Amino acid sequence: MAHAQGQQHPISLYLKIWGLLFVLSTLSYLVDYFHFHGYLRWSLIITFMLLKAGLIVSIFMHMAWERLTMVYAILLPPLCLLVLVGLMATEADYVFLSRVISFGQ
Amino acid sequence: MASHPLAPGESSSSNPPDSPPAPGWQGIASDWASDKEVFKQVPWGKAMMWIFLLSDTFIFTCFLTGYMSVRMTITTAWPNPSEVFALTIAGQEIPLILIAIMTFVLISSSGTMAMAVNFAYRRERAKTAALMLATAALGVTFVGMQAFEWTKLIAEGVRPWGNPMGAAQFGASFFMITGFHGLHVSIGALYLGIVALKVMRGDYERSGNYQNVEIAGLYWHFVDLVWVFIFAFFYLW
């Protein structure tokens, strides 16, 4: 019944996650502060971003304790968006060339 | 639900609605196959909020993908966000400092919200309402800082169709993405205020169900989640 009544976890868990999110945000800010460049910068940004997103979704939004059917129904559809991102990225040089040719900038 | 008549061939023990799921894919298959509601044990309000958030994910990703396409295809230099969003504090220019503070404010609001949900299920009404109002206050602070940032950029001549720092599309992306996110935060603060009021009034105490606090929390954490992506891709990239 405790579960049907809702999620019940110790407050300390939330405080720990809160602290972790603070640390991760500070780290991602430091990436900019120390002027990292190129692939090092991008991979660090994405790593910290995914870690933060994962903590928020799994702990704060309680995804870690939801029924698997729910988890997959919500987390799988966004994968379509990766296809969109991939398509737009592969089209980018074509669009760039069109800009150069048509607008002569 | 519990008292519906049994269909022929259906035994009451084969798949009662409150049975724990079988592990892994077997459980998923049986949840989807039972020809009844799929999201068992998930209150409909929560399932609907998740589906709304899923659709919102698509909207924000479309914005961010549009921004990515623009940034990959421009022929002039993109303004350096580290400099555009720098603030001069005590005579020293600190890069991106306002955005960093906004990030911490929003993360803190997520922390207070998570604790509010926790106290709601423990039926500690005063603490729940106080934490929710604190969350809303942090949200309003965030929007206030965003308004300050907008004012500063508009004063510097950034417009949706051009700006003095570089690629013309910078303004359009900036106003569209942060504006839409700020709108979400504003509506969220209002939403939290209303739910906090209902907590204080004892509505959920009477119905014995504090699920609505968790549902409001889902929305609020999502707003924070979107900011994580905006922070990474728009401000840091």
- Tell me the number of strands of chain A: 0
Protein chain pair with the most extensive contact, residues per chain = A-B, 59 and 64 residues
Number of domains of chain A: 2
Beta-strand residue fraction of chain A? under 5%
Q: Reading side by side through the largest sheet of chain B, how are the strands ordered? A: 1-2
Number of helices of chain B: 8
Rg value of chain B: 23 Å
Mean pLDDT of chain B: 88
Q: H/E order of the elements of chain B? A: HHHEEHHHHH
Judging by the overall fold, what is the CATH architecture of chain B?
Answer: Up-down Bundle
Number of strand elements of chain B: 2
Q: Would you tell me which CATH topology of chain B applies?
A: Four Helix Bundle (Hemerythrin (Met), subunit A)
CATH superfamily of chain B: Cytochrome c oxidase, subunit III, four-helix bundle
Give the overall silhouette of chain B: globular
The biggest sheet of chain B, with number of strands, parallel, antiparallel or mixed sense and barrel status, is: 2 strands, antiparallel
Summed up, what is this model?
Chain A has 105 residues and is an all-alpha fold. Helix content of chain A is 75%, strand content 0%.
Characterise this structure.
The complex is a heterodimer of chains A (105) and B (237). By secondary structure, chain A is an all-alpha fold. Chain A has two domains: 1-65; 68-105. Chain A contains four helices and no strands. Chain A has helices at 11-33, 38-60, 68-75, 79-103. In chain A, α1 runs antiparallel to α2 (38-60). The N and C termini of chain A lie far apart (66 Å). The model of chain A has no long low-confidence stretch (mean pLDDT 88). Chain B has 237 residues and is mostly helical. Chain B has a single domain (44-236), classed as Up-down Bundle (Four Helix Bundle (Hemerythrin (Met), subunit A)). Chain B has eight helices and two strands. A two-stranded antiparallel sheet of chain B has the order 1-2. In chain B, a hairpin with a 2-residue loop joins β1 (87-89) and β2 (92-94). Residues 6-15 of chain B have low confidence and may be disordered. Chains A and B meet through α1, α2, α3 and α4 of A and α1, α2, α4 and α8 of B.
